[in-house]
Amino acid sequence: MKYNVFINDQRLNVTYNDKLILGEIILKCSFSRMLNVEYVPAEIEREENKIKVNFIRKKSTIYDEVRYAFLELEEVGTSLKVSFNALASRYNFLAHGAAHICFTMPEGTAGALALDSVVPCWMNVSFPQGMGELKESVDSLAFKVNSIDVHVLPLSNDNTASRVCADGLRISPRNNGASEIHSTVMCVTASDDPYKAVHEGFVNMKQSGDITVPLFAERKYPAALEGLGWCTWEAFHTTLTSEKILTKMDEFAAMGHVPSWVLLDDGWANYNHGKLVTLTENTEKFPEGLKGLTAILKEKYGVKAVGVWCGMGAHWSGVDPEGEVMATLGDCFFQTLGGIRPGPTEEKAFKFWDTWFEYLKAQGIDFVKVDVQGAQSGYYDVYYSGAAGTKAIHSALDRAAEKHFDGALINCMGAVMESALCRPSTSVNRTSYDFYPNRKFDLAFHTIQSIYTSTVHNEIHCCDFDMFFSKHDWGEPSAAMAIMSGGPVYLSDKLDASDPKIISKLCINGGELVRYDVAAKPTLDCYYTDCSKAETALKLFSLAKDNIGFMALGVTKDKTVRGTFRLSDLPADVVKAEQYLMHDYINDKYILVNQKSAIQFALGYENCVIYTLYPIAEDETVSVGDPAYYCEGSMPPIKTAHYTSFID
Question: Is 127 helix (H, G, I), strand (E, B) or coil?
Answer without folding.
Answer: coil
